[in-house]
Structure prediction request, 468 residues.
Amino acid sequence: MSRSTPPARVRVVQDAPLRPTGDFVLYWMIATRRTTSNFALDRAVEHAAALKKPIVVLEPLRAGYRWRSDRIDTTLVAGMSDNARRFAGEPVAYYPYVEPEAGAGQGLLAALAERACVVITDDFPCIFLPRMVRAAGEQLSVRLEAVDSNGIVPMRSTPDAFPTAYSFRRYLHRNLSPYLGEAPYARQRVAGVAPRIELPPAVVKRWPLASLESVPPRGATAAQQTLVDFLARLDRYGDDRNSPENDATSGLSSALHFGHISPHEIFHELADQEDWTPDDLADTVKGNRAGWWGMSESAEGFLDQLITWRELGYNMCVHRPDDYDRYESLPSWAQVTLEAHAGDEREFVYTLEQFDTAQTHDPIWNAAQTQLRREGRIHNYLRMLWGKKILEWTASPRDALAVMIELNNKYALDGRNPNSYSGIFWCLGRYDRAWGPERPIFGKIRYMSSDNTRRKYKLKSYLEAYSS
Prediction:
């Protein structure tokens, strides 16, 4: 290869030597589910070219994990179909595997790894994937490397968990620029490796390949079209992104979560449209949301979401792996004020089932929850209100957190993601500051109300569309 994968992206999980006598390089694709703009695939190609070996890509779908749903499975299998089509003309043996029942795939990775020179996988810091990769490293005898394709900045290069978006933005203003030129290959580049190898017949017989012939190929193809559509209406983003009836958001959150599109690809397509070069960056480290990039207002507003806020969530998960999803990870001031008001009288207290089925007294909240159940998403602004009201209508802030995590991860296509956990915990004070006046239940936590939302935004058609 003409360049190597940036060292800050590569984490050695099992520090065994390379096995040159192996039959192939194995890429265990578990989070970065795409064939382009993928540092992990680049790393696999790098090893395969050096060893003059073919590549096997194993993309599995587990059964039995918490919050599994038909919606998630359908999205992932459609992505597998897309990957199969894209790999078809390449020297890659693509192995899509869907567990028919929990535990059926046990032993598949080990069986392939026995014949591998090296195993590459994705470094994703959330839900069960870190535990799964760590367990694989303890069990395999071959070298295992986890590669970070999550963001513009390698997540493990940051020094610590940042407490606010402002402090992280200042860090980015000082440190981001060199990483903008370290993008993965934007086009599929499986070159310089040995011809495609036949998958081991005994392995395939025991763990049959997923049948994808009748599955429409979406995944990266659909994500790239979503990006094209968004960039065509980018000028609306600055003014309309918070309006539920003028939905000007990108629609890319779930595609980013499932790894069907790269933040590098999004950034570079946006930069090309803005006719931007790194020379346009402002010579300042003020941490301002706008003015640093030297792009249009809408472009800078979107980049603040794509890079600052999204990567802030990954920063939290990688530096606080044991409690990023726990109440105790909230800033001290937030825990103090929430506990001080935990016993405050609540006018309404709903059960998880009532929340789940959108049976509250508030039509705006019910509409947001109905959209979540029906479409796997809530409009961005209403998602914040959704969380704030759960805090107000549960018996305690700990109960509120449990309800938010359960409903979000159960229904949201972009749930179970570092960025998604940021949104949930923001409702309880993470990345925020103390606000006055101090209120019942909320204490110094930022308050939001349905009445104020009605005053700020038109909601008639939204409420009609999602009336339960």
Strands lie at 10-14, 24-28, 55-61, 92-98, 116-122, 144-147. The CA atoms of residues 284 and 292 lie 7 Å apart.
